[in-house]
Amino acid sequence: MIEAVGLTKRYGDKTAVYNLSFQVRPGAVTGFLGPNGSGKSTTMRMILGLDNPTSGTVTIGGYPYRKLPNAPRQVGALLDAKAVHGGRHARNHLLCLAQLSGIPERRVDEVLGVVGLQDVAKKRSKGFSLGMGQRLGIAAALLGDPQVLLFDEPVNGLDPEGILWVRNLMKALASEGRTVFVSSHLMSEMALTADHLIVIGRGQLLADMSVKDFISANSADFARVRTPDTEPQLREKLTSALTEAGGQVLPEQDGALRVMGLPLPRISDLAHDADVRLWELSPHQASLEEAYMRMTQGAVDYRSSIDQRAGLQQPLPPGAQPPMPVPGQGQPGWYAPPPPQQGGQPFTPPQGAAPAGPYGGPAAPGPYAPGAPAGGPNPYATPGNQAPAAPAAESSPQPSAAPVAAPAQTAAPADLTKPEDAR
Amino acid sequence: MAAVQVIRSEWTKIRSVASTVWTLSLAVVVTVALGMLISALSRSQFDRMPARERLNFDPTVVSFAGMTLGQLAMIVFGVLVVSNEYSTGMIRTSLAAVPQRATFLFSKIAVAAALALAVGMATSFAAFFLGQSLLGSHRTEIGDPGVLRAVIGGGLYMTLIAMFSMGVASMLRSPMLSLGILMPFFFLISNILGNVDATKKIGRFLPDQAGSRIMQVVPRVDDDTPYGPWGGLGIMGLWVVAALTGGYILLKKRDA
Known about the structure:
Distance between the termini of chain A: 59 Å
Number of helices of chain B: 12
Number of strands of chain B: 0
Number of strands of chain A: 13
Low-confidence stretches of chain A: 309-317, 320-423
Number of domains of chain B: 1
Largest sheet of chain B: none
Order of helices and strands of chain B: HHHHHHHHHHHH
Largest sheet of chain A: 6 strands, mixed
Mean pLDDT of chain B: 91
Oligomer: heterodimer
Shape of chain A: elongated
Radius of gyration of chain A: 25 Å
Order of helices and strands of chain A: EEEHEHEHHHEHEHEEHEHEEHEHHH
């Protein structure tokens, strides 16, 4: 059991982790997600007592790591696969770690077998591929047969066979009642491996819930409904019928309707009752990846530049949909999905954290905040703007209560280029 | 017992990298070979030396002449032993396994210092005997007063210089930075400060200037050094203690 309470880490005036509280329970694989630079590794280092928190505590089994009796037999960690002396044999690397923890030498050969490195045991780790390095790191974590395991990006550089192996290993370790805490940004992998998720963005907790809850809380499952294009009145009729039945109906750019809050059979029934023919009725389910992207958009520190992406989009004909990571985003009439509720805190930028940073400006309501007096140019304020918005200008689905200035700021430059695109 | 475990582990670490063998054997070869060369030259040049230099002629010091360069290899050894952990990132794994940072650092330094002592002693005795054998009639004997002290002191000097480098490296962490400061300092700056009249009074309290006093047997004419051979080695020891303490305090306080 790993427990963090109010964990905060500052490097100078940069806040890496802010007021993070969570628990990692035994018997389950807990995924630790967040964009690059969101504080995942810093948190892991604090758990291991390598970095001292500025404030707050983190304990393993009730002890801070540095006070944990026989720590290496209780906790195993893979922090950085490249953190080995390249001139040392794989076996010697593990041997010195084993001796450091008072682990008998035969265990070294055991774990080498477990991770499949027995044939290169006497090879210098300099020549190892990234995948072999990861296996060596995992072997080091398994040395003490610990009850608590931490893995920082364990599948980076592994081949499909290795990924499958890591996935099964994590699950097997958790099923033995161990605490397994895995950071990653491979969402599809986490969806298959993890039972529980802790999501952070820019050092703060965004969500702490099971994978299932996370997807349903952060994704807007919807149905796409299309009425015959030739008869627009049918569309109006269906919209009012569905709204009356309690559904949320949003028009899509191509004339289809996006219906939320009603199951597919019910939509069909309602359409039948209203005597409206349907050309399309399709379910759309969000994946963990989509749910994650929605949640963390506003919390991404490093993203590809707007100009570059806008430039790439220029050849697209007006009105065409650019490939988008999250369907619906950037289209006129796209609304923010429901904010994360259970377990997740509304995301507010830490006070005093990088005030001059691109996201740290005075909080202005996001473009989608209800009744928001748009402080800057709002790309979506004009209905009927057929220009495809740059995905980089996508607004964040932040809870309207605590929006970030980011969307307005990033949207502005993209918006300026848009009329040219449309021409 | 944690310290025993760390010592065993550090021994595995130190013997399983090539840099240990390279730096230490370089220290032996350079010190001994250069000492032999200078000894042979001194023997052939002795008659042409000015009287004052002949009076000051110290055969023990002559056979240790290679140490000026040999100590640089010892410095590299000391720096690499510590900073390897940082440059590879291994320090995180190590400290995760041994959260008691004092145990970790001092066990590491104990292992490396013991190895440096063994190599340093062997070097010192080899340099002395091989050097003396080339000095011919100007040679001295190990049994002469002060000579055994000087030869043992030579081994201790090499150990202390390696330990001082370990302390500096654990403060600075980067191998390049540590070597970039230590090498020119001990090869040039300290020698200049210790021999120029203006700075001599302070310069001779620098670690290598004070420590190398132990290798002198024949007292210099008009010598006004305020410390004796063991006093000098003691001053060097204080420098080592200071460097190691600094390294420990920083390791304890700093994020790994």
